Amino acid sequence: MKNTVTICFTNNKGGSGKSTTCSNVGAAMARTGRKVLLVDGDMQLNLSLSFFTEEEVLSMAENQKNLYYGVTRQEDLSDYIVHTRYDNLDLIPSSTLMSSIEYELFTKWQREFILRKGLQKIKESGEYDFILIDAPPTLGGWVMNILCASDYVLVPVEASPWGMFGLANMFDFLNHVRELVPSLEVMGIVVTKADGRKGYFRQTMETLRDMEGIRLMESVIRVDSNIEWAQDNSAPVVEYKHSSRSAKEYTALAEEVIRNAGGKREY
Predict the structure, then answer these.
(1) Is position 65 within any domain?
(2) What's the domain range around 93?
(3) pLDDT tens digits for 58-68?
(4) The sheet that has 216-222: what strands, in order across it?
(5) pTM of structure
């Protein structure tokens, strides 16, 4: 029986490309035949909107078929899974109510592990090869919940003058979480929104390479208007335009993630 590997996509700075990276890595994995469950942990709903229209996402919020209700009710999250239109790719959608999740969790017993418990039966079933979780750009109790439910952390960093702002604080936070979950590993940093014509791209790469003990992923995601067109059509770019440069880059990143997660997968 296979182990399900859970990977969190997180950065406490907004605009880093977390949701786009999570959706496209998941879709690229699914295209290889891996079974993938995406979990939208962000109140901005961007991961959900990567696969469903705004009307469909709002409908799922209204009928309570979303992560907020599953977590606050502390239920098995299997009942909150919806199928996307792509083979091997499912989603637990988010809700704007996630804005109050910190308050909802504050008085719960063992609140840091509520999401972990909610995903437990899904992981034990072995139905999915990977669970990919999109975290909000904060460093609070809910992100701690997501990290405690994960095996690996992947950190998208925008190649811009402010892209690395707050990165040190985030890694300090990760070290604190590892006191609760020593098995949690940082898979690496992936550079997004890169423009090789600009000097700060090279500066960003040099700075990240010099970070001790942190892997810089080989795959780099460059600026590509196809990503925005895909988002406008509620689709990941690897499905919207598989021949595009960004689709190829996300596919390469997905292959790299699969290789790096190999140590925690068994068949």
Answers:
(1) yes
(2) 5-260
(3) 898 888 889 99
(4) 82-83, 89-92, 36-40, 130-134, 5-9, 152-158, 185-194, 216-222
(5) 0.94
